[in-house]
Amino acid sequence: MARLLLLSLLVAGCSSNSNQQITDGGSDANACPAGAPMTIPIVSAAHLDAAHGSADAMIAVPAGCWSSAQVTMHVKTQCKGVPPPNQNWPAACDPFDRLAQVSLADANTTALFLLDAVTSFGGETTWTQDVTDYASLLAGTHDYHVEVGTYADPAGKATGTAASHDVDVSLTLTPGPPPRAILAAVPLLRQTIVNATPPLTAMITAPAGATHARLDYFTSGHGGNGQPPCDEFCLKENDLTLDGANVYMDQPLSDCDSNCTQVPISGTSTCGGMTFNYACKENPTACPSSAVAARSNWCPSRIIAPIAVTLPDSALTGTHSVGLAIQMVNGDWPIGLSAVFY
After folding, report:
1. Does the pLDDT at position 220 exceed 60?
2. Which of 109, 124, 131, 242 shows its CA 20 to 30 Å from the CA of 170?
3. How many CB atoms are located within 10 Å of the residue 310 CB?
4. CA-CA distance, 154 to 203, in Å (whole number)?
5. How far apart are the C-alpha atoms of 217 and 199, rounded to whole Å?
């Protein structure tokens, strides 16, 4: 695991690194003047491969009033060029779609999912996730964890022999009045759910003065292919509860129909039982039928946006139990759950 150290300018008033951060979050334009955006690199030109698929960076972020806070991730694999003899792909090429994730991951705390995405098949992608409501958690010096899942086939058949991704991640802060007066932002759960995972629980306590509460839920199903066990392409019920009562119950599915801008090719290619005379701009090494197949809350080359779940008024005072369960899991579901009060 690569470990990077990058210290950015740190101004007075930094928060601690506890799980819950409290801020007055005022929207007074005089107290929170607008200004030019500032971009803080988290990792730059990180080379992630099968042996070293993640990078950690200890980053200092100034406290302040931010009208916008956005995490941007750029991922590229090199699949252009001529493969070595008796191989199918250039050495550095990873022609498959892989999970790409950024988390705030301080030791001895619950990690906060900041960005969740899936790489393109054999291409280059940039995603941006708004994290403005979590700006108070980012202030100070914290450990950021960046990961891209990669597999390298030593024979060069399924992938290049040194399949890898080059990764850049940054945080852009724009000074100004925040859109909401955030009273608390609380990471609750961050893990991968598999078949043996029992239902998960976490506790939340409403801060004084809260008038709105929300859960932000990252979820996507992978693997477990086949009939009937399948998590990538089959509907699986996701349940969130507050004190035992459902606040979210759905089988999240993403429509990927628009995920293949056709690029004409010389000749034809046959895959998935079909013949094509084009490739997909967004997913250049994908079988076109795979690029557009609906999946469990994700599409290749796209960001996985958190599902916002509004909590009832009962959550605005006192302490409550939040539950999370996914039904009939056969593959794996990386999840992240956090709560926001304002």
Report:
1. yes
2. 109
3. 11
4. 46
5. 15
Q: Read off the DSSP letter of residue 83.
A: P
Mean pLDDT, the chain, as a whole number? 92
CA neighbours closer than 13 Å in the CB half-sphere of residue 201: 7
The two three-digit tokens of residue 320, written as one number: 């409550």
Residue entry with tokens 């724009």: 174
- pTM to 2 decimal places: 0.91
Residue 228 pLDDT > 80: no
pLDDT (0 to 100) of residue 226: 77
- CA 294 to CA 291: how far, in whole Å? 9
Closest residue by Cα to residue 67 from 132, 13, 134 = 132
| Collapsed DSSP state (helix, strand, coil) of residue 91 | coil
Distance of CA 102 to the CA centre of its chain: 6
Contact 155, 79 (CB under 8 A): no
Strand-pair category, 319-326 with 54-61: unpaired
Nearest of 142, 48, 140 to residue 101 by alpha carbon: 48
What pLDDT shows up at residue 229? 79
Helix (H, G, I), strand (E, B) or coil at 316: helix
- Per the DSSP assignment, residues forming a β-bridge with 197 are none
Q: What is the DSSP letter of 70?
A: E
Please name every residue paired with 141 in a beta bridge, in sequence order, or none if there are none. Answer: 60
* H/E stretch holding 72: strand 66-76
- Closest to 285 (Cα-Cα) out of 126, 96, 124: 96
Which tens digit of pLDDT belongs to each residue from 108-145?
999 999 999 999 999 999 999 999 999 999 999 999 99
Residues of the chain with CATH 2.60.120.230: 1-182, 188-254+294-342
CATH number for 1-182 (one of 3.50.30.30, 2.60.120.230, 3.30.420.180, 3.10.180.10): it is 2.60.120.230
If one counts every other C-beta atom within 10 angstroms of the C-beta of residue 306, the result is 22
Give the domain 188-254+294-342 fold: Jelly Rolls (2.60.120)
Predicted confidence (pLDDT) per residue in 172-214, tens digit: 999 999 999 999 999 999 999 999 999 999 999 999 999 999 9
